[in-house]
Structure formats: C-alpha cells, structure tokens
C-alpha cells in the first residue's frame, strides 16, 4: 500500500498498522509480537467452500436469466410470425 499513501501521511499509516498488530513488511503479529497465521485451515476451507457455492449460484442464476431472455425473444418472434400470417390472410 506504500505507493498509494502520500509521503506526509505515511507515519500515521505505519503507526496505525503497528497498533493493529501489523509489523513492517506486512506481517501480522499478536500482542506479544509473535507472527499470527492469517486463517486456520478449517476457516480457509469454509471460506473456499462458500466462495465456490456463491460462484456456482451466481453462474446458475445468470444462465437461468439468459435462458429466460432467449425464450422471451423466441416467443416474440413466434408472435410476430403469426401476425404476419394473419395479415397475409386478410389480403387474400
């Protein structure tokens, strides 16, 4: 994040990071200065599972929406063809 912080504010930013347990180099530590793992394996697995479910759900929703739109367009095309046939019958 350093390139995005103005030079006059970097001191405040680094102090803030240290106050929440992040040392120089972006290493997360506990209150005793020990390096903390960012996430347990169980938590990481749960997050990955949720993310994949979310993506699958969004993908299914998108596919369903595209299918509905396609059916609507096909129905409009059929209606238009029927109207053209009726108009031709009226001219005869």
UniProtKB/TrEMBL annotation:
> Which GO terms fall under biological process for this protein?
heart morphogenesis
**InterPro entries annotated for this entry?**
CCM2_C (IPR032375), Malcavernin (IPR026159)
Q: Which Pfam families match?
A: CCM2_C
- Annotated Cerebral cavernous malformations 2 harmonin-homology domain ranges read 1-34
Q: Domain of life, per the record?
A: Eukaryota
TM stretches of this protein: none
Protein name per the record: CCM2L protein
Q: Which organism is it from?
A: Pachyramphus minor
């Amino acid at each position: 994040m350093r390139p995005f912080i103005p030079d006059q504010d970097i001191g405040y930013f680094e102090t803030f990071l240290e106050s929440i347990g992040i040392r120089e180099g972006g290493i997360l530590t506990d209150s005793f200065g020990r390096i903390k793992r960012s996430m347990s394996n169980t938590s990481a697995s749960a997050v990955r599972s949720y993310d994949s479910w979310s993506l699958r759900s969004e993908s299914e929703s998108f596919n369903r929406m595209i299918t509905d739109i396609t059916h609507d367009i096909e129905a409009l095309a059929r209606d238009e063809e029927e109207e053209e046939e009726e108009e031709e019958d009226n001219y005869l």
